[in-house]
Amino acid sequence: MSRLKRSDRPYDIVLFGATGFVGTLTAEYLAAHAPADLRWAIAGRGEEKLERLRERLGGDVGVLRADVSDPASLRALAEHARVVATTVGPYVSYGEELVAACADTGADYLDLTGEPEFVDLMYVRHDARARETGARLLHACGFDSVPHDLGVYFTVRQLPEGVPLTVDGFVSVDATFSGGTFASALGQFARGRQMLAAARERGRHEPRLMGRRAAAPVGPPRFAPEVGAWALPLPTIDPQIVLRSARALPRYGPDFRYRHYAAVRRLPVAVGGVAAVGTLAAAAQLPPARRWLSDRLKPGEGPSAQKRARSWFSVRFVGEGGGRRVCTEVAGGDPGYDETAKMFAEAALALACDDLPPTAGQGTTAVAMGDALTGRLTRAGVRFRVASRR
Ligand SMILES: NC(=O)c1ccc[n+]([C@@H]2O[C@H](COP(=O)([O-])OP(=O)(O)OC[C@H]3O[C@@H](n4cnc5c(N)ncnc54)[C@H](OP(=O)(O)O)[C@@H]3O)[C@@H](O)[C@H]2O)c1
Predict the structure, then answer these.
(1) Which atom of ligand 1 is nearest to the CA of 113?
(2) What is the tally of structural domains in the chain?
(3) For site-directed labelling of 242, which of 85, 159, 202, 217 has its Cα 20 to 30 A away?
(4) Is pTM, for the whole model, over 0.90?
């Protein structure tokens, strides 16, 4: 355990990767919205870049230097913080040492990963230690998977208690992505075998759910009249996160099922989207093609402020159980960056400032901070609403 108790640490929040694309947006969000007495710092590998960012942010922001190739610097970073928020990805390549340092020193940790392999390996290797030290390890605290996890949490609470529940989620977005996200996605496509192996290893370690059932089956592609769109199964990390919340929270009922879809209005767009993802996934298997693709969009690059201002997301949920049916929606602006920075910063602030349920080890946003984060995001302009019920 760290020499310093959590309350004695110099910073409430340290933001690692603050000079990257989403890191800078998160730092700007914190500078504009953090309470005046919050002690926080930006961290990264480049002193000059960090100093330039600190000057731009103004205020009393600390600066820490740390590099993923230097484990001692990550340990020092964890020891200096009550909460460590990291944007340094792809996490499967760069993330583990920091998770280990946080688990060992009892610092709360959150990231923006959408990589199931990373999350499963971190569970297998660091969850037990984090439970001993009280560290909360929260992955996927951006568009992956906050609107989906909190949207299902919100939907479930509109339905009767103690009965089997089903929820379908339909994701619509109009947005583009950054170099960092593109690199992570390409990396994931190339690691299908490792991802399955990590999931199997997790399965061997994770306790069985006793007396209740929860599942996230892949639904078939179909026209979904309930949302007036084609529904294509979306095998992202989101249904896995929702499933973990359902396993942890008895409010999801004795038998819970979640299916996750992309919602596309026009069939040709749906077919084109599937073909494009399939081509990208196939190309990512070949190292020369992967290198060529990753040269198209460099780390640190991303959509302009104008493009982001025109971007939006909407996730509609249809929940049923106990003879009731409810349609809900979580919606907001640019999902990948502006809203991701907002969700990430608000999740870090919730860990640092809010009175949350007592949890430790690897968790989800719904379990660790469902009410607090829903409230924070609502106040910050993300819309949670009930569209209809019967
Ligand atoms: N879940 C979501 O919804 C969501 C949304 C957006 C992004 N993401 C994920 O977030 C991550 C960041 O995305 P991004 O677009 O911000 O990427 P980016 O611009 O490439 O930023 C990556 C950051 O990592 C830092 N870094 C790289 N190698 C490092 C090292 N050896 N030591 C210390 N720091 C190092 C970079 O530092 P320098 O500034 O010094 O280069 C930079 O700050 C990606 O994994 C992406 O997939 C997820």
Answers:
(1) 1
(2) 2
(3) 85
(4) yes
